[in-house]
Design a protein that fits this description.
By secondary structure, this protein is α/β, with parallel strands linked by helices. The chain is built from 10 helices and 11 strands. Strand 10, helix 6 and strand 11 form a beta-alpha-beta unit. Helix 2 crosses helix 3 and helix 5 packs across helix 6. The chain is globular.
Length: 303
Amino acid sequence: MKLMPYYRSADHAFNLLCGDTFELLPQFNFKFDMIFADPPYFLSNGGISVQSGKVVCVDKGDWDKGMSQEDINTFNYKWLSLCREKLKDNGTIWISGTFHNIFSVANCLTQLGYKILNVVTWAKTNPPPNISCRYFTYSTEFVIWARKSAKVPHYYNYELMKHINSDKQMTDVWRLPAIATWEKSCSKHPTQKPLGLLCRIILASTKPGAWILDPFAGSSTTGIAANLLDRRFLGIEREEEFARISKARREEIEDLKTFNAYRSKIPDVVKAEDNQIDLKMCCESEGVESLPFLSDENESKGR
């Protein structure tokens, strides 16, 4: 039985399944050029932070509740194993995290036979203050980039990354802001990543037309970035609340004026604009046959 999408865009470039990634990933054999994953960091343990000048609880939801280190390792090993089966032999995977989960992820990657290429440090240019005044302000996250196999070469758009970086080799420290107000127009996910970060990742490691998977899609920043850059997307999100936001965000960029406005707000996209192909021109001919893991019937159930 074919899987039913929660939502699929008319051009078939954006596809979203609503359910548990551990249950859905084994149900199809399609292989992807790239995977981006923002798994739980297991930080929802009653802590506080500052948001828009107000003290707020940082609990994200039950999906982010803390677990034992053994359980965290088991969780990471399981989803990374499933994702490895969905990567093309020359495909790469990016995983974001903080020190709370990223070491576990790195160990699991090595155990599963991935080759770690880089550990990017995302230095946020606008981090929230540390209200306890007992630690250095947390201003970074890490993004591991790994390929499926040590022996099969991966794709890296070196010249474009150098061009974006003022014709100097791009380092593994990226100074980029957290999400801007305009990225929250359809509401937001509590751990939503900025489009600027995802656009750089996608431009660096895929070609136009590539298929990208996000097993923990959230509000589908990965999918929005992919479609802004002429790539195609499948996301899996467990929480229907966030799936609804994803759908609204994708429908928002159906308007060509909004589509172009968003591209114009992302510096890397502006610098790389001559290398891009218009999404609507590229994906117009993509038929259902290119989506072997999705049904063509009643794709959104009226949602």
